[in-house]
Write a structure and sequence with these properties.
α14 runs antiparallel to α15. The longest helix is centred in the middle third of the chain and has 19 residues, at about 205-220. The protein has a five-stranded parallel sheet with strand order 2-3-4-1-5, with helices on one face. The protein is globular. With about 325 residues, the protein is α/β, with parallel strands linked by helices. It has 15 helices and five strands. Helix content is about 55%, strand content about 5%. β2 (about 75), α4 (about 85-95) and β3 form a beta-alpha-beta unit. It has helices at about 10-20, 35-50, 60-70, 85-95, 120-130, 150, 165-175, 180-190, 195-200, 205-220, 225-235, 240-260, 275-285, 285-305, 310-320, and strands spanning about 25-30, 75, 105-110, 135-140, 155-160.
């Protein structure tokens, strides 16, 4: 009853540790956003506390409470606003000193731990160094490099990768998504099953993607003033910038693939193939690769708290001009 698509090796490892009753005191699940890290962590919490014979059964009282988020021994501690704060970690440290109230294990899941403040990360380090009994802490992050090495070294690291497009497509069709839509969403997701499932039930995600891709196309056709205005507009909502950069990266990867002669079925943005073909002819592999490098550098700068407007201005002004 593991409610996770793919990541079979990780499921097998965690299932074995749950059944033998010897989990690690801390895990770090690493991988791109929306590929199932938090879902896997919650399933593991169910397996550790399941009252059934084949864990996690998904039907016992413990499994159902964890699924609803009301189990007293399982906590999902998400960042407050944009960061995970030291007060949240201190509250965790107070609780972990107590014995499980109802289940076998206290499980604390801290998603997006790369968003923890340095003070919060150092505070948690004390608990990781001297873990209490009957407590399992699960962190998730985009990349190992975004965390303190001392935190990483005290966790069992599970590096999760995007799923194959066929796995995503099959999972969507199993949820009664029309085959044509399932193919498109699988490609757009880049193997991120969580995003694909959300997009299948929330058309606004796909509509937002279309809007941001149109903004990129317009920027490439327009001059410096327009690009500066766009940078100002986008930087007013810095929480959206990581997703926007990921969409633009996907676009330029497609341009580079088409410029290099790859097959169209290998690209992500299948619904915009005509525009991509035109842009691939006008730019070529070298220009596309340069754009990808600039986008990756901008994403890295934003992770290190560079001023969002300055970062977006530098990015947009560096992109090629395709105006007539």
């Amino acid at each position: 009853m593991w409610h996770i698509v793919g990541h079979e090796w990780a499921v097998a490892l965690l299932s074995h540790s749950a059944k033998n009753g010897h989990p690690a005191h801390a895990y770090l699940l690493v991988g791109p956003s929306h590929i199932g890290k938090t879902t896997l962590a919650l399933n593991y919490a169910q397996a550790l506390n399941c009252l059934g014979s084949d864990v996690p059964c998904g039907h016992c009282l413990a499994c159902r409470k964890i699924e609803r988020g009301v189990h007293p021994d399982v906590r999902l501690m998400e960042p407050e606003g944009s960061v995970l704060k030291i007060d949240q970690v201190r509250a965790l440290q107070h609780e972990v000193s107590l014995s499980p109230f109802e289940g076998r294990w206290r499980v604390y899941i801290l998603p997006e731990f790369h968003r923890a403040t340095t003070e919060a990360a150092n505070c948690l380090l004390k608990t990781l160094e001297e873990p209490p009994p009957r407590v399992v802490i699960i962190l998730t992050a985009l990349r190992i490099e975004m965390l303190l090495p001392t935190v990483v070294s005290r966790c069992q690291v599970l590096s999760l990768r995007p799923l194959s497009l066929s796995q995503v497509q099959e999972a969507l069709e199993a949820r009664e998504v029309a085959p044509e839509a399932a193919v498109l969403l699988a490609h757009l997701s880049g193997g991120r099953i969580g995003w694909a499932i959300m997009a299948a039930s929330n058309p606004a995600l796909v509509e937002r993607r279309a809007r941001y891709l149109e903004m990129l196309e317009n920027a490439l056709e327009r001059g410096r003033t327009y690009r500066m205005q766009m940078a100002d507009q986008l930087s007013q909502h810095p929480e959206n910038l990581p997703d926007i950069l990921e969409m633009w990266l996907s676009w330029w990867r497609d341009v580079m693939l088409l410029s290099g002669g790859c097959k169209e079925e290998d690209i992500a943005n299948l619904d915009r193939i005509m525009v991509l073909r035109q842009q691939a002819k006008r730019t070529g592999v070298k220009v596309a690769r340069s754009a990808i490098q600039t986008l990756c550098a901008t994403a890295d700068r934003l992770e290190h708290n560079v001023n969002p407007r300055l970062a977006m201005e530098a990015l947009l002004l560096s992109l090629p001009s395709l105006g007539a």
